[in-house]
Amino acid sequence: MDTKFQLASPYWLLALLVLPVVAWLRGRRAVSAMILPFSGAWRRPSFIGGTKLATTLVFLSAVAMILALARPQSVATERHSKSRGYDIILAVDLSGSMEAEDYFVNRKRSNRLQAVKPVLSAFINRRENDRIGLIAFAGRAYTAAPLTFDHKWLARQTERLQIGLIEDGTAIGDALAVATSRLLEGAKERAGEREGAFIVLLTDGENTAGMMEPMEGATLAKEAGIRVYTIAAGKNGYVPFPRRNERGERIGTTQQLLRVDTETLKKISDFTSGEFFRAEDSDTIDQAFQKIDESSTIEFEVRQYSTITELFPYPLYAAAAFALLGLVAGANKFREALA
Protein backbone atom coordinates (compact mmCIF):
# COMPACT_ATOMS: atom_id res chain seq x y z
CA MET A 1 0.00 0.00 0.00
CA ASP A 2 1.33 3.46 -0.96
CA THR A 3 0.41 6.56 1.05
CA LYS A 4 0.89 10.13 -0.09
CA PHE A 5 -0.32 13.57 0.94
CA GLN A 6 -1.99 16.14 -1.31
CA LEU A 7 -3.89 19.42 -1.18
CA ALA A 8 -7.36 19.46 -2.74
CA SER A 9 -7.39 23.30 -2.99
CA PRO A 10 -3.73 24.34 -3.08
CA TYR A 11 -4.46 27.84 -4.41
CA TRP A 12 -5.52 28.90 -0.92
CA LEU A 13 -1.82 28.82 -0.01
CA LEU A 14 -1.42 32.05 -2.00
CA ALA A 15 -3.19 33.77 0.88
CA LEU A 16 -0.10 33.11 2.99
CA LEU A 17 1.63 35.83 0.96
CA VAL A 18 -0.78 38.42 2.38
CA LEU A 19 0.00 37.68 6.02
CA PRO A 20 3.48 39.29 6.10
CA VAL A 21 1.95 42.51 4.71
CA VAL A 22 -0.75 42.48 7.37
CA ALA A 23 1.86 41.86 10.07
CA TRP A 24 3.93 44.79 8.81
CA LEU A 25 0.94 47.13 8.82
CA ARG A 26 -0.07 45.91 12.26
CA GLY A 27 3.34 46.83 13.60
CA ARG A 28 3.13 50.48 12.56
CA ARG A 29 2.24 52.58 15.61
CA ALA A 30 0.92 55.41 13.48
CA VAL A 31 -1.63 53.17 11.90
CA SER A 32 -2.59 51.77 15.28
CA ALA A 33 -3.10 55.22 16.73
CA MET A 34 -5.39 56.26 13.89
CA ILE A 35 -7.61 53.26 13.66
CA LEU A 36 -7.84 52.03 17.27
CA PRO A 37 -9.57 53.64 20.25
CA PHE A 38 -7.77 54.13 23.54
CA SER A 39 -4.62 54.92 21.61
CA GLY A 40 -2.91 56.23 24.69
CA ALA A 41 -3.38 52.96 26.51
CA TRP A 42 -2.37 51.07 23.36
CA ARG A 43 1.03 52.77 23.35
CA ARG A 44 1.84 51.85 26.95
CA PRO A 45 4.86 49.50 27.22
CA SER A 46 2.92 46.96 29.28
CA PHE A 47 0.21 46.75 26.67
CA ILE A 48 2.56 46.62 23.70
CA GLY A 49 4.39 43.61 25.19
CA GLY A 50 1.12 41.81 25.80
CA THR A 51 -0.28 42.41 22.36
CA LYS A 52 2.80 40.89 20.73
CA LEU A 53 1.74 37.52 22.12
CA ALA A 54 -1.86 38.05 21.05
CA THR A 55 -0.77 39.15 17.58
CA THR A 56 1.45 36.09 17.20
CA LEU A 57 -1.39 33.78 18.23
CA VAL A 58 -3.81 35.43 15.80
CA PHE A 59 -1.17 35.19 13.06
CA LEU A 60 -0.76 31.45 13.73
CA SER A 61 -4.54 31.09 13.70
CA ALA A 62 -4.67 32.69 10.25
CA VAL A 63 -1.93 30.37 8.95
CA ALA A 64 -3.74 27.31 10.30
CA MET A 65 -7.05 28.50 8.81
CA ILE A 66 -5.46 28.91 5.37
CA LEU A 67 -4.00 25.40 5.61
CA ALA A 68 -7.44 24.08 6.50
CA LEU A 69 -8.97 25.85 3.47
CA ALA A 70 -6.32 24.19 1.26
CA ARG A 71 -7.84 20.84 2.36
CA PRO A 72 -4.88 18.56 3.08
CA GLN A 73 -5.66 14.92 2.33
CA SER A 74 -4.05 11.55 2.93
CA VAL A 75 -4.39 9.21 -0.08
CA ALA A 76 -3.76 5.50 0.52
CA THR A 77 -3.48 3.50 -2.72
CA GLU A 78 -3.70 -0.27 -2.79
CA ARG A 79 -3.14 -2.36 -5.93
CA HIS A 80 -4.56 -5.82 -6.44
CA SER A 81 -3.15 -7.90 -9.28
CA LYS A 82 -5.04 -10.87 -10.68
CA SER A 83 -2.20 -12.00 -12.90
CA ARG A 84 -1.16 -15.64 -13.15
CA GLY A 85 2.29 -16.09 -14.58
CA TYR A 86 4.22 -18.99 -16.05
CA ASP A 87 6.69 -21.45 -14.63
CA ILE A 88 9.78 -21.36 -16.86
CA ILE A 89 12.94 -23.45 -16.94
CA LEU A 90 16.00 -22.14 -18.78
CA ALA A 91 18.16 -25.10 -19.87
CA VAL A 92 21.64 -23.83 -20.81
CA ASP A 93 24.38 -25.83 -22.54
CA LEU A 94 27.77 -25.70 -20.75
CA SER A 95 29.59 -28.12 -23.04
CA GLY A 96 33.11 -27.33 -24.24
CA SER A 97 31.87 -26.09 -27.62
CA MET A 98 30.28 -23.09 -25.87
CA GLU A 99 33.85 -21.73 -25.68
CA ALA A 100 33.76 -21.09 -29.42
CA GLU A 101 34.38 -17.39 -30.04
CA ASP A 102 32.04 -16.68 -32.94
CA TYR A 103 30.03 -13.98 -31.12
CA PHE A 104 30.71 -10.28 -30.63
CA VAL A 105 29.60 -8.34 -27.54
CA ASN A 106 30.18 -4.56 -27.62
CA ARG A 107 32.34 -5.08 -30.72
CA LYS A 108 34.63 -7.46 -28.84
CA ARG A 109 34.96 -11.13 -29.71
CA SER A 110 33.24 -13.29 -27.11
CA ASN A 111 32.57 -16.97 -26.56
CA ARG A 112 29.03 -18.28 -26.84
CA LEU A 113 28.35 -18.59 -23.12
CA GLN A 114 29.52 -15.06 -22.32
CA ALA A 115 27.34 -13.69 -25.13
CA VAL A 116 24.32 -15.58 -23.84
CA LYS A 117 24.53 -14.49 -20.19
CA PRO A 118 23.36 -10.85 -20.56
CA VAL A 119 20.52 -11.99 -22.82
CA LEU A 120 19.40 -14.50 -20.19
CA SER A 121 19.53 -11.84 -17.47
CA ALA A 122 17.47 -9.41 -19.55
CA PHE A 123 14.88 -12.11 -20.24
CA ILE A 124 14.67 -12.96 -16.53
CA ASN A 125 14.15 -9.31 -15.58
CA ARG A 126 11.34 -8.90 -18.12
CA ARG A 127 9.35 -11.86 -16.72
CA GLU A 128 8.45 -10.30 -13.37
CA ASN A 129 5.24 -12.33 -12.94
CA ASP A 130 6.88 -15.69 -13.63
CA ARG A 131 8.74 -18.23 -11.56
CA ILE A 132 11.94 -19.13 -13.35
CA GLY A 133 14.46 -21.90 -12.76
CA LEU A 134 17.82 -22.78 -14.30
CA ILE A 135 19.13 -26.13 -15.58
CA ALA A 136 22.77 -26.44 -16.66
CA PHE A 137 23.87 -29.37 -18.76
CA ALA A 138 26.88 -30.82 -20.52
CA GLY A 139 27.67 -34.53 -20.07
CA ARG A 140 24.79 -34.59 -17.56
CA ALA A 141 22.11 -32.18 -16.37
CA TYR A 142 21.67 -30.62 -12.96
CA THR A 143 19.50 -27.96 -11.31
CA ALA A 144 21.50 -24.74 -10.99
CA ALA A 145 18.53 -22.82 -9.54
CA PRO A 146 15.03 -24.00 -8.55
CA LEU A 147 11.89 -22.18 -9.64
CA THR A 148 11.90 -18.81 -7.94
CA PHE A 149 10.41 -15.32 -8.01
CA ASP A 150 13.72 -13.91 -6.78
CA HIS A 151 14.93 -12.81 -10.19
CA LYS A 152 17.91 -10.85 -8.88
CA TRP A 153 19.28 -13.96 -7.20
CA LEU A 154 18.56 -16.01 -10.32
CA ALA A 155 20.42 -13.51 -12.51
CA ARG A 156 23.44 -13.86 -10.21
CA GLN A 157 23.27 -17.64 -10.54
CA THR A 158 23.22 -17.23 -14.30
CA GLU A 159 26.36 -15.09 -14.15
CA ARG A 160 28.13 -17.87 -12.21
CA LEU A 161 27.67 -20.45 -14.97
CA GLN A 162 31.01 -21.68 -16.25
CA ILE A 163 32.19 -24.12 -18.86
CA GLY A 164 33.92 -27.08 -17.24
CA LEU A 165 31.69 -27.30 -14.15
CA ILE A 166 30.34 -30.60 -15.51
CA GLU A 167 32.01 -33.39 -17.45
CA ASP A 168 31.99 -32.57 -21.14
CA GLY A 169 29.31 -33.71 -23.55
CA THR A 170 25.84 -32.59 -24.62
CA ALA A 171 22.98 -34.39 -22.84
CA ILE A 172 19.96 -32.73 -24.46
CA GLY A 173 17.54 -35.54 -23.57
CA ASP A 174 18.58 -35.52 -19.91
CA ALA A 175 18.26 -31.72 -19.76
CA LEU A 176 14.66 -31.92 -21.00
CA ALA A 177 13.87 -34.69 -18.51
CA VAL A 178 15.28 -32.76 -15.53
CA ALA A 179 13.56 -29.54 -16.65
CA THR A 180 10.22 -31.33 -17.00
CA SER A 181 10.63 -32.88 -13.55
CA ARG A 182 11.29 -29.47 -11.95
CA LEU A 183 8.21 -27.99 -13.64
CA LEU A 184 5.98 -30.86 -12.52
CA GLU A 185 7.19 -30.38 -8.95
CA GLY A 186 6.41 -26.68 -9.25
CA ALA A 187 2.90 -27.42 -10.52
CA LYS A 188 2.17 -29.47 -7.39
CA GLU A 189 3.37 -26.64 -5.14
CA ARG A 190 1.18 -24.00 -6.78
CA ALA A 191 -1.76 -25.86 -8.22
CA GLY A 192 -4.08 -23.49 -10.07
CA GLU A 193 -1.87 -20.44 -9.54
CA ARG A 194 0.20 -20.78 -12.72
CA GLU A 195 -0.97 -20.09 -16.25
CA GLY A 196 1.26 -22.81 -17.69
CA ALA A 197 4.85 -23.86 -18.11
CA PHE A 198 7.51 -23.99 -20.79
CA ILE A 199 11.19 -24.76 -21.29
CA VAL A 200 13.76 -22.69 -23.14
CA LEU A 201 16.52 -25.02 -24.35
CA LEU A 202 19.70 -23.32 -25.55
CA THR A 203 22.42 -25.49 -27.06
CA ASP A 204 25.12 -25.28 -29.71
CA GLY A 205 25.75 -28.92 -30.52
CA GLU A 206 24.51 -32.45 -31.02
CA ASN A 207 23.33 -34.90 -28.38
CA THR A 208 26.46 -36.85 -27.41
CA ALA A 209 25.84 -37.90 -23.81
CA GLY A 210 23.21 -38.73 -21.21
CA MET A 211 20.86 -41.60 -20.53
CA MET A 212 17.94 -40.29 -22.57
CA GLU A 213 17.59 -39.42 -26.24
CA PRO A 214 16.40 -35.89 -27.12
CA MET A 215 13.00 -37.02 -28.41
CA GLU A 216 12.46 -39.13 -25.29
CA GLY A 217 12.94 -36.02 -23.20
CA ALA A 218 10.63 -34.11 -25.54
CA THR A 219 7.98 -36.82 -25.09
CA LEU A 220 8.07 -36.34 -21.32
CA ALA A 221 7.55 -32.60 -21.79
CA LYS A 222 4.71 -33.07 -24.27
CA GLU A 223 2.89 -35.54 -22.01
CA ALA A 224 3.10 -32.98 -19.20
CA GLY A 225 1.69 -30.25 -21.47
CA ILE A 226 4.97 -28.34 -21.47
CA ARG A 227 6.11 -26.45 -24.56
CA VAL A 228 9.79 -26.40 -25.48
CA TYR A 229 11.38 -23.43 -27.21
CA THR A 230 14.71 -24.44 -28.74
CA ILE A 231 17.55 -22.07 -29.61
CA ALA A 232 20.43 -23.26 -31.78
CA ALA A 233 23.39 -21.06 -30.84
CA GLY A 234 26.53 -20.52 -32.89
CA LYS A 235 27.57 -21.10 -36.48
CA ASN A 236 28.18 -24.32 -38.36
CA GLY A 237 31.64 -24.88 -39.79
CA TYR A 238 35.06 -23.68 -38.69
CA VAL A 239 34.93 -21.15 -35.86
CA PRO A 240 37.58 -19.46 -33.65
CA PHE A 241 38.35 -21.58 -30.60
CA PRO A 242 40.80 -20.99 -27.72
CA ARG A 243 43.90 -23.19 -27.71
CA ARG A 244 45.14 -24.25 -24.27
CA ASN A 245 48.17 -26.05 -22.87
CA GLU A 246 48.17 -29.05 -20.53
CA ARG A 247 47.55 -26.80 -17.51
CA GLY A 248 44.47 -25.28 -19.12
CA GLU A 249 46.14 -21.96 -19.79
CA ARG A 250 45.25 -20.22 -23.02
CA ILE A 251 48.13 -20.06 -25.45
CA GLY A 252 46.39 -18.92 -28.61
CA THR A 253 43.45 -19.37 -30.98
CA THR A 254 42.73 -22.10 -33.46
CA GLN A 255 39.93 -22.97 -35.89
CA GLN A 256 37.64 -25.84 -34.93
CA LEU A 257 34.89 -27.53 -36.94
CA LEU A 258 31.56 -27.46 -35.05
CA ARG A 259 28.06 -28.51 -36.01
CA VAL A 260 24.68 -27.62 -34.54
CA ASP A 261 21.97 -30.27 -34.84
CA THR A 262 19.21 -27.91 -35.96
CA GLU A 263 17.10 -30.77 -37.30
CA THR A 264 16.67 -32.38 -33.88
CA LEU A 265 15.99 -29.03 -32.21
CA LYS A 266 13.27 -28.28 -34.76
CA LYS A 267 11.68 -31.66 -34.11
CA ILE A 268 11.63 -31.03 -30.37
CA SER A 269 9.97 -27.62 -30.70
CA ASP A 270 7.42 -28.81 -33.28
CA PHE A 271 6.58 -31.92 -31.25
CA THR A 272 5.89 -29.90 -28.09
CA SER A 273 4.09 -26.99 -29.83
CA GLY A 274 6.98 -24.66 -29.09
CA GLU A 275 9.17 -22.78 -31.56
CA PHE A 276 12.67 -23.11 -32.98
CA PHE A 277 15.13 -20.21 -33.29
CA ARG A 278 18.46 -20.00 -35.06
CA ALA A 279 20.87 -17.64 -33.32
CA GLU A 280 24.21 -17.21 -35.07
CA ASP A 281 25.18 -13.92 -33.40
CA SER A 282 24.37 -11.74 -30.38
CA ASP A 283 21.57 -9.86 -32.14
CA THR A 284 19.70 -12.96 -33.29
CA ILE A 285 19.96 -14.65 -29.90
CA ASP A 286 18.48 -11.54 -28.27
CA GLN A 287 15.72 -11.48 -30.90
CA ALA A 288 14.96 -15.13 -30.14
CA PHE A 289 14.32 -14.40 -26.46
CA GLN A 290 12.24 -11.34 -27.33
CA LYS A 291 10.05 -13.47 -29.61
CA ILE A 292 9.62 -15.99 -26.82
CA ASP A 293 8.52 -13.06 -24.65
CA GLU A 294 5.90 -12.04 -27.19
CA SER A 295 4.50 -15.52 -27.71
CA SER A 296 4.43 -16.45 -24.01
CA THR A 297 3.08 -13.39 -22.26
CA ILE A 298 -0.28 -13.22 -20.53
CA GLU A 299 -2.44 -10.17 -20.02
CA PHE A 300 -3.32 -9.50 -16.42
CA GLU A 301 -5.69 -7.20 -14.61
CA VAL A 302 -4.50 -4.76 -11.98
CA ARG A 303 -7.12 -3.03 -9.85
CA GLN A 304 -6.24 0.08 -7.90
CA TYR A 305 -8.14 1.29 -4.86
CA SER A 306 -7.60 4.73 -3.33
CA THR A 307 -8.86 5.80 0.10
CA ILE A 308 -8.90 9.57 0.71
CA THR A 309 -8.88 10.84 4.30
CA GLU A 310 -9.63 14.53 4.85
CA LEU A 311 -7.07 16.12 7.20
CA PHE A 312 -8.43 19.71 7.24
CA PRO A 313 -10.07 19.31 10.71
CA TYR A 314 -6.63 19.25 12.34
CA PRO A 315 -5.46 22.69 11.13
CA LEU A 316 -9.04 23.96 11.64
CA TYR A 317 -8.98 22.94 15.31
CA ALA A 318 -5.53 24.52 15.63
CA ALA A 319 -6.83 27.77 14.09
CA ALA A 320 -9.70 27.92 16.57
CA ALA A 321 -7.38 27.23 19.50
CA PHE A 322 -4.86 29.90 18.46
CA ALA A 323 -7.65 32.44 17.89
CA LEU A 324 -9.19 31.77 21.30
CA LEU A 325 -5.83 32.06 23.06
CA GLY A 326 -5.11 35.27 21.16
CA LEU A 327 -8.41 36.81 22.23
CA VAL A 328 -7.83 35.85 25.85
CA ALA A 329 -4.27 37.24 25.84
CA GLY A 330 -5.36 40.46 24.16
CA ALA A 331 -8.33 41.02 26.48
CA ASN A 332 -6.28 40.50 29.64
CA LYS A 333 -3.56 42.93 28.59
CA PHE A 334 -6.16 45.49 27.48
CA ARG A 335 -7.78 45.46 30.91
CA GLU A 336 -4.38 45.77 32.59
CA ALA A 337 -3.48 48.74 30.40
CA LEU A 338 -6.72 50.58 31.25
CA ALA A 339 -6.35 49.98 34.96
TrEMBL record:
Pfam families: VWA_2
PROSITE patterns in UniProt: VWFA
Domain of life: Bacteria
TM ranges: 6-25, 46-70, 311-331
Domain VWFA: residue ranges: 87-292
InterPro entries named among the record's database cross-references: UPF0353/GerABKA_families (IPR050768), VWF_A (IPR002035), vWFA_dom_sf (IPR036465)
Alphabetized UniProt keyword annotations: Cell membrane, Membrane, Transmembrane, Transmembrane helix
UniProt keyword annotation of Mitochondrion present: no
Protein name: VWA domain-containing protein
